[in-house]
Amino acid sequence: MKITVVGGGAIGGIVAARLARAGIAVNLLARGPHLDAIQRNGLTVIEGDQRYVVDVNATDQPGTLGVQDLLFICLKGPALIQAARSLAPLVDGNTHIVSVMNGVPWWFLNAFGGRLAGQRLESVDPGGIVSSVLPPSQVSGCVVHISSSIAGPGVIKKGYGNQLIVGPASAGVADQAARAINLLRLAQFDVTVSNQIRSDIWVKLWGNMTMNPISAITRSTGDVILDDPLTEQLVVSIMEEARRIGEQIGIELNMTAQARNAQTRKLGAFKTSMLQDVEAGRQMEIEAILGAPHELAAKAGVPAPFLSMLYGLAGQLNANLGANANAPTR
């Protein structure tokens, strides 16, 4: 099989390295100093006390790779929108696409969503730029429960967790999804097979859509947010709105918001990925986490005032981060 991992960051790097270590030939699309270091020295992974280096065919030129049998899309939403057109040489009608992304993906409403089925989400697929290159009918979804970070150019540091939840987004790719799952298991991931991948995506989003942006705005760790009765109530209010949005598109959640938050509270004083982005001066990924649920609420006619408020605040913070990054220094 011709296999390419699109995105050599914290998660894409782990996927590519584990596949290569299992003896599976894999290409890696990366860029900048990270790519330069991988091309010079190989891709280095630190897992606990273990450190290993693998050789992967790393490039920033998708056109040199040709059509692929399997693509793992491991980019954040804004990066995928920016890169989408360049990925066209990798895809034909037989390419299986596995989206390894946070939040609501571009293919979410394909053959799903009741009266919203087949509609496009402008927030994550503006103008259809992503779906025109990566057909939703050829996709499987993957929910990641792994902590990982880029420790330096060409170096990935894996943290806690090893679980991937993988399932076809439509019946037509079930066999291809099974092959991808087998490869990921060969790569030593703990893979759970899902026949309702959208529900699994929504369950993870249920926590991310509150804790991530609130932590970024307040600079608070998770324990502080959930121990304060006012911010905890805001979290619950948004989660209840998300529950009602999910119900309108065919997703039923089998736990209370309080039970979900109790699970999160056990993680202690953790920093969310959005808080880490803000502290590093990077813009946050808010459209897949907040923009798409907000758009779904509008399409489904579900009032979501608390979600709208948080989306607006996060958008302003993001805009200010971008402005500060471009501001002249004195």
UniProtKB/TrEMBL annotation:
Keyword check for Ribosomal protein: no
Gene Ontology cellular-component annotations: cytoplasm
Reaction catalysed?
(R)-pantoate + NADP(+) = 2-dehydropantoate + NADPH + H(+)
Q: Look up the EC number in the record and give it.
A: 1.1.1.169
KW rRNA-binding (keyword) present: no
Which GO molecular function entries does the Swiss-Prot or TrEMBL record give? Answer: 2-dehydropantoate 2-reductase activity
Q: Name all Ketopantoate reductase C-terminal domain ranges.
A: 197-316
Describe which pathway this protein belongs to, using the record's wording.
Answer: Cofactor biosynthesis; (R)-pantothenate biosynthesis; (R)-pantoate from 3-methyl-2-oxobutanoate: step 2/2
- Could you mention a single GO BP entry for this protein? pantothenate biosynthetic process
Q: What keywords is this UniProt entry annotated with?
A: Pantothenate biosynthesis
Under the heading InterPro entries, the entry gives: 6-PGluconate_DH-like_C_sf, 6PGD_dom2, KPA_reductase, KPR-Related, KPR_N, NAD(P)-bd_dom_sf
> Residue limits of the Ketopantoate reductase N-terminal domain?
3-104
Protein name, entry field: 2-dehydropantoate 2-reductase
Which species is this record about? Caballeronia mineralivorans PML1(12)
What phylogenetic lineage does the species belong to? Bacteria, Pseudomonadati, Pseudomonadota, Betaproteobacteria, Burkholderiales
